[in-house]
Specification:
The complex is a heterodimer of chains A (434) and B (143). Chain A is an alpha/beta fold. Chain A has helices at residues 8-11, 15-36, 38-46, 68-73, 107-123, 142-153, 166-175, 185-197, 219-229, 342-351, 386-404; strands at 87-92, 102-106, 131-134, 157-159, 180-183, 209-213, 232-239, 244-250, 257-259, 264-269, 283-289, 300-306, 308-309, 321-322, 327-328, 333-335, 338-340, 358-365, 368-376, 409-413, 428-430. Chain A is globular and about 75 Å long. Chain B has helices at 16-26, 52-61, 82-92, 120-129; strands spanning 3-11, 31-38, 42-49, 66-76, 97-105, 110-117, 134-135. In chain B, strands 1, 2, 3, 4, 5, 6 and 7 form a seven-stranded antiparallel sheet that branches. Classes of the chains: A alpha/beta (434), B alpha+beta (143). The A-B interface holds A 377-379, 382-387, 389-390, 411-417 and B 5, 7, 9-11, 16, 37, 39, 41-42, 44, 46, 63-67, 69, 98-99, 116.
Chain lengths: 434, 143
Amino acid sequence: MCNNYYDKAVETAPRGKLKDIQSERLVRTVKSCYENIPFYRRMFDEIGLKTNDIKSIDDITKIPFTVKQDLRDNYPFGLFAVAKDELVRIHSSSGTTGKQTVVGYTQGDIDRWSQGVARAIVGAGGTKDDSIQISYGYGLFTGGLGLHYGAEKIGATAIPVSSGNTKRQVQILQDFEPDIICCTPSYALTIAEMVKEMGIDPSSLKLRAGILGAEPWTDEMRREIEEKLKIKAYDIYGLSEIAGPGVAYECREQDGMHICEDFFYPEIVDPDTLEPLPDGEYGELVFTCIGKEALPLLRYRTRDISYITHEKCACGRTLVRMQKPRGRSDDMLIIRGVNVFPSQIEHVILSLGMEPNYQIIVDRVNNSDVLTVCVEMSEAFFSDEVKKIENKEREISASMQSMLGVSAKVRLVEPRSLPRFEGKAVRVTDNRKF
Amino acid sequence: MAVKQISVFVENRAGRLADITGILADNKIDIRALSIADTTDYGILRLIVDNPDNAVSKLKKAGLTVSATEVLGVEVDDVPGGFARVVSVLSDKGISVEYAYAFITPELGSAYVILRVENNLTAEEVLSDAGIKLIEQNDIFKK
């Protein structure tokens, strides 16, 4: 089948033309940041950088970086470049620290974000004749509404199922006959298992593609999903700070994700020196929002480790491609799509009066992430009765659940049995393979 | 009229039980009775020993989590229905048993049951009223 594009002119544009678009938009964005966001004005003034110094995309390296903490420090709306009445939507990050990060969109922002998602759906072979089952969560999380607006943008039929109730998901796959499903890769596998459990032959379903993302996954997992659901599975990348899903997407070559670089300008930098790295070298992915009005972050450090390549893709697109991120430059864990920081776990442990020695183990069991927190047994928690210890364990688990937003298994171990650290503590063992 | 039981937190790892009982052996502490409550990840080793205070301090020194609890010890007739009588006396008064374990002492020729209840004093009263003999630490270590 021939390749389709949603925005052929941009997606297959000569590199020179893309650069012109990027330069023009960067200059405009930088001016808006300086004029409308006190945080950026201070940042520029501090190093004596003038907006006039930014003349083309090549000048981007003169601009300092923005990090997630800056969003927290300016919670909730401090980094918005527009007045609140210009916002048409607000989302927030899946991380559930005391202060989550809030992102806002103008109508234009929603249009451009939806355009990115539309490219992703078309890149995965979607057309206006298709029905698209959206099984990402709807709500503050960008997944559900992000895909929904993209589906409507191309004129397809959106089926806003949201996540959960797996039996109903399968029922809808059978009855509404969607052509494409959008969800996390692990949920795609859960659905595949339910299909099998309900005795349904996957090849009897009309479904032909999945657009899957919001968590790290492997090529092995892709093959498993493709085999079990008899579909093609495409990766989609995004983060709420930049927009949401659709920042980058896979085409039918399934060979890296095309970045919507006319809206989100990517760089790869060395996470230690912050120096830009060339194509093909792994480093931290950094984005500048050159097509956003409400929250135009400059050189935002995603903490995702990846590499990019400007080589033209066999699909005909010239848009730069990023590799599936292979890890993080900070200690953030993504557990079943939810961002979890070890510091949050530590906070729960300390607030319950337990020893500050703990280990975090992450496994993938039956394609779902399992978070186990090992805590040392202390006299305050010990009892001669199993019942009482189990109650304590439940209390810890419940606190973790409410603080982290994901469930964690608590394992009590003997005192002094966990490793002690002299330098930087290594408390996380991630047994998942990405 | 109670017996001091010590409880030790034991992680489910090979050799842990041997390590712990080895500490008691090295310190010439005599175990009269024991029970282990096991879960998937850990167990609780409960012991009746001749010198509980010494046992607690030695085990703590070895870095273990230990607690001491007063439990009831009752003498039962070593005949069918002996134990049934004890528990029915308690249940008649609405007293529930959290856990129990039994042992015999050949030199004293008696059978004993260790009982863990919520309130020792109430249970003692109920048992004494029914003519059931309660024992003390020293009773089971007489030579």
